[in-house]
Fold this protein.
Amino acid sequence: MKAVQIDESKHLFIDDYQMPVLGENELLVKVHATAINRADLLQKHGKYPVPKGASPILGLEMSGIVEQVGSNVTDWKVGDRVCSLLPGGGYAQYVSIPSDLAISIPDHFSFEEAAAIPEVFLTAYLNLFELGRLKENETVLIHAGASGVGTAAIQLAREFGASSIVTAGNEMKLAACTDLGANHVINYKNEDFKTVVEKVTDHVGVDVILDFVGASYFHQNLQSLNSNGRLILIGTMGGVKVNDVNLLPLLTKRISIIGSTLRSQTLEQKIYLTNQFKKYVLPLFTNKKIKPIIDSVYSWQEVNEAHTRMENNLNIGKIVLKID
């Protein structure tokens, strides 16, 4: 088969690669589309180690058609349309996946749309509801609201009855967040989000913060949380080291800080999360209440251009690669 590989200059190219081996509890899927995540950019530059046993090929999600089923698999058949999380390997013509991670693609969805679902919507669900314990009538502050995870989180918060305050870096991105249901939007380039949160919440603060930024937002995040607030850290785009940390607010406000990555979850945890997704989120897609937000679709022959678009923070939602 063919797969995207990385040369010494970090340029991506398509070349021959060994076919995945089908396990007895797995599906062999012919990949029709995959999507780009920031983890791909980090891995390309050697800053995101590949988990033990995972494919070194980039790509944390895919959509496609089942071509073979393992000997122990009874609930899927050849020809089924599926999408799935991956520990790696999505930038390739074929992947093998545990059958319990496969998600049936709604009939009205294209492969490009389906490929834009698994990583961001399972990440958003995990961090908002499983870890963040976001409840109806609570308020969540979502940083990087126009990102793939951000656009998913806005929609899920809306559908589960929570309010959202969202940060983004330009008016086009803010408008997109508003269209998805964000209750308040903040341009972080010319507004202090802590000040806006204080005003919007009448100095109460938010219940949950979903943060991709890390160090540079840490102090403001703590000040923006209410009592029993939960800070969910899922990225460190703004640095990894925080200076002059005052621990007192953690005690007096009973704040929880939780670090989270989806890729490092065990297979059992991913299966549990996939089942929760199928139960609570997939029906929202089927009923057309939520949708993946696709910024652009590239042929995988244009994978370098697609990476450049994300590296320059130009995307609103997901960048998808067609494996054509």
